[in-house]
Design goal:
single chain, 565 residues, alpha/beta, ABC transporter transmembrane region fold, Rossmann fold, six-stranded mixed beta sheet, four-stranded antiparallel beta sheet, 21 helices, 10 strands, 64% helix, binds adenosine-5'-triphosphate, binds magnesium ion
Length: 565
């Protein structure tokens, strides 16, 4: 599938500039420094040429603007020194903006993902989101540090040189220069950006897809080895790598063609201005000294437009990255969080005629009715894939229901403040993710200010305290990368401890004992029974032993939920 940009280049640039916000004054500073820097750089050659003209005694100009030797040399050297300082300031401001903004953008993307999750992370390849957070944002650095200001600088400097050559030397020469700027700074970039647009977008797409595939392969390397599927994977990595290489070559070839054409054009315009200058002198329309200054000023003035014409190669990639980032920032979440909604303190749950499907015409749950009172343990059983986890996710509004109602204390879940809902209802999902931090920190995400005593009580309830105490540093032990150092059962019990620590009134448990042996299962169930008087628990499990503690059990089959009498 070919990726098309959703917005035009101009629209992307405008949207990215809007993101600058209060940093825009630093951008103005960068442009001013950059423009003055170029003018200073040209000052070195122009004053040099003035010196040469004076030495050759050519200057009618010297009679008009009497410059002493000392002044000419001083100004030439001074321009050189000032140029250095200004260039430093320009680069400093550009990079200051770029990196500051990258931090802001990462923050925005995280915020957007926070709202789009968990639906987004369930439905899209995680790899492409990771690629966006890493490489797309890096590409935008190029935009902020090396794109906006070169364009502004090119406009300002070209205008300044046009006026300078016109007033000091000749308007004919100034017009030749202007024509050169327009062709090199606008016509060439427009033509080459059109030619490079497709290859840039294709390159980024292949780059992102290769990264995602490679990352996925590394994550699943254990399963690849266990299934003896290395050769197929390697073959596919090679194939994708070849495609990427082909796209890279195509893009680089295009960039090289464009840049050689531009260099050629610069040489042509320099030759043209020299020819016009010589003709003007020949026909007595300009004296040699002024011609020298004008032509030298034009020689040194193509730097800024050259910088602009070098942009398209980067720019197409930047646009593709910018487009993807903007898409994510503007993406409508599957579920919009409820802000300033109703609040409640859980006492009962009533679900009525609830229907839901992930995809049209493929209902997962049909007209589900159930209820749970405070102090009850409700069991849910059913075949794998029948929609048990989906039901729990709907109770937490991870997805929006299609029809029916989910009422907490008589208030529909769609009207309840999202934060308040998560305070009242906690879920321990089938897989618990542990961060590469200490066990203590992993527990504290449920309650950041928990005391050591609270941590230990929760872990005892989840039957994981004794295990933690056997670890070398107890609660301060670091969980290895990806939590691979802990067994599935240990992770599951830490997940349970998190839920106990959170202290919500309704706890949803998705297979809480699937990876736990019968001794630990017994201890966990005992803790759940102890909680019973204070809380409600909805328990999904295949295990009959676990279901034994349920007060009432619902059975799900073909999307229909019925109470088992
Ligand atoms: N994000 C999703 N997008 C599309 N379909 C999904 C999504 N998540 C789950 N499904 C599908 O919905 C159906 C119900 O899935 P669910 O995870 O609720 O089953 P389950 O009863 O919890 O199964 P298990 O006992 O194996 O955990 C399945 O057919 C599953 O493939
Ligand atoms: Mg499930």
């Amino acid at each position: 599938m070919k990726e098309k940009l959703r917005r035009s280049g101009i629209k992307i640039m405008a949207s990215l500039i809007v993101l600058l916000g209060s940093l825009s004054y630093i951008m103005v500073l960068a442009v001013l420094n950059g423009s003055l820097g170029f003018v200073a750089a040209m000052g070195v050659t122009v004053f040099g040429a003035t010196g040469v003209a004076k030495a050759l005694g050519l200057l009618g100009l010297c009679a008009e603007i009497p410059l002493s030797w000392g002044l000419i040399i001083g100004l030439a050297v001074g321009c050189g020194v000032v140029r250095g300082g200004l260039r430093y300031l320009e680069q400093y401001s550009n990079h200051f903006i770029a990196f500051k903004l990258l931090a802001v953008l990462r923050d925005k993307i995280f915020g957007a993902l926070r709202i789009l999750c968990p639906a987004k992370l369930e439905s899209k390849q995680k790899g492409s989101i990771i690629a966006m957070i890493t490489s797309d944002i890096e590409t935008l650095e190029v935009f902020y540090a090396h794109t906006i200001s070169p364009i502004c600088i090119a406009v300002l400097v070209s205008l300044a040189v046009f006026l300078f050559v016109g007033f000091v030397s000749s308007w004919y020469l100034a017009l030749v220069a202007l024509l050169g700027y327009l062709v090199i700074g606008i016509v060439v970039p427009l033509i080459s950006s059109k030619a490079l647009k497709e290859s840039g977008v294709n390159y980024r797409r292949e780059f992102a897809s290769f990264n995602a595939y490679f990352l996925d392969s590394i994550k699943g390397i254990k399963d690849i080895v266990l299934n003896n599927a290395e050769r197929e994977r390697e073959g596919e990595v090679d194939r994708r790598s070849d495609i990427l290489l082909k796209e890279t070559k195509k893009m680089k070839r295009g960039i090289t063609k464009a840049s050689s054409a531009t260099e050629l054009l610069v040489s042509l315009f320099i030759a043209l201005s020299l020819a016009v200058g010589v003709l003007l002198v020949h026909f007595g329309l300009l004296d040699l000294g002024k011609m020298l200054i004008g032509v030298v000023a034009i020689f040194g003035s193509f730097g800024p437009v050259l910088a602009v014409s070098a942009l398209p190669g980067n720019l197409t990639q930047t646009f593709a990255s910018g487009d993807r980032v903007l898409n994510l920032l503007e993406e409508k979440p599957a579920v919009t969080p409820v802000k300033n909604g109703k609040t409640f303190e859980y006492s009962d749950l009533k679900v009525d005629e609830l229907s839901f499907s992930y995809e049209k015409d493929a209902p997962v749950l049909k007209d589900v009715c159930m209820h749970a009172e405070k102090g009850e343990i409700i069991g849910i059983v059913g075949e794998s894939g029948c929609g048990k986890s989906t039901f729990l996710k709907l109770l937490l509004r991870f997805w929006e229901k299609d029809r029916g109602s989910i009422d907490y204390n008589g208030i529909d879940v769609d009207n309840i403040d999202s934060d308040n809902l998560l305070d009242n209802v906690t879920m321990v999902s089938q897989t618990t993710y542990l961060f590469d931090e200490s066990i203590e920190d992993n527990l504290r995400i449920a309650k950041p200010d928990a005391t050591q005593e609270e941590l230990e009580t929760a872990c005892k309830m989840a039957s994981v305290h004794d295990f933690i105490m056997t670890l070398p540093e107890g609660y301060k032990t670091q969980v290895g990368a990806m939590g691979d150092n802990l067994s599935a059962g240990e992770k599951q019990r830490i997940g349970l401890a998190r839920a106990f620590l959170k202290g919500s009134q309704l706890i949803l448990l998705d297979e809480p004992t699937s990876n736990v042996d019968s001794i630990n299962e017994g201890m966990i169930l005992k803790s759940l029974l102890e909680q019973k008087s204070k809380k409600s628990i909805i328990l999904v499990s295949h295990r009959e032993s676990t279901m034994a503690i349920a007060d009432r059990i619902y059975h799900v089959d073909g999307g229909i939920m019925q109470e088992v009498k």
